[in-house]
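User: Please predict the structure of the protein below. I'd like the answer in structure-token form so I can feed it into my own downstream comparison script.

Assistant: Understood. Taking the following sequence of 237 residues as input:
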Amino acid sequence: MRLSLPLVFLSIAHYVLGNTEIVNFHASEVNDVNISLAKDWPILNPNHNELEWDIFPALLGTPVNQVCETKEPKNATCSHELWIVLDLVEAWKAYSKFTLRLSWPASFSADFSLDIYDPEKVVTHFGLEDLTTYISSRPKTRRKYGRIRVVNTGVPTPAPPSHHNPIHDRLASPPVPIILILEPLYFGVLPPTVIPVLLYLVLAIVIGALLVPIFNGYLEDVAVQVKKELNESAKHD
């Protein structure tokens, strides 16, 4: 693996200049369920593990765990949430633990909820079908689903006046740009994107350990030389 210093700086800057929400989850096999709604949801997989999206935050003061919970019908769309498919296919079969990371710019005052759902839980949430009809012989899957919800937590941004909803005029916010990244966890704890940073830190420690004795020896030689010159100068005086 060939590493570059700019890559490390960019990785560090990504965390410094933005906010991050992370959820780790176990990819166990569960009953597969056909979810018709999911055909329109974005998919993350080994070939496409990063997604950029914009979400409109719910009104200021809304509890994040209540966002999009009162919609009727239950399968209606809600602009304050995003559902995604986490396709943990054969290429990731060797991994049992994964991490889903959500990042957004620090300039946006927002609070996010990031949850992982099994297929049956999605069906129950949307009230799509009676799960008691399912039998144990159904196919198994490691597919998961992610639910992202957002609420405004900061100073409202002025919006065009509306004649229908004055409360919305005071509290509405522009959409929050987000980046979602799905990764397997090496050894159950390390996402691949942090490995270059860790390698550079280890390399810096090793180089430092090698250079410190050399630098100390050089300083000692300089100190001895200075002391010698001071003694000779004192004798001449």
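That's the full token string. The chain has two domains: 5-190, 193-237.
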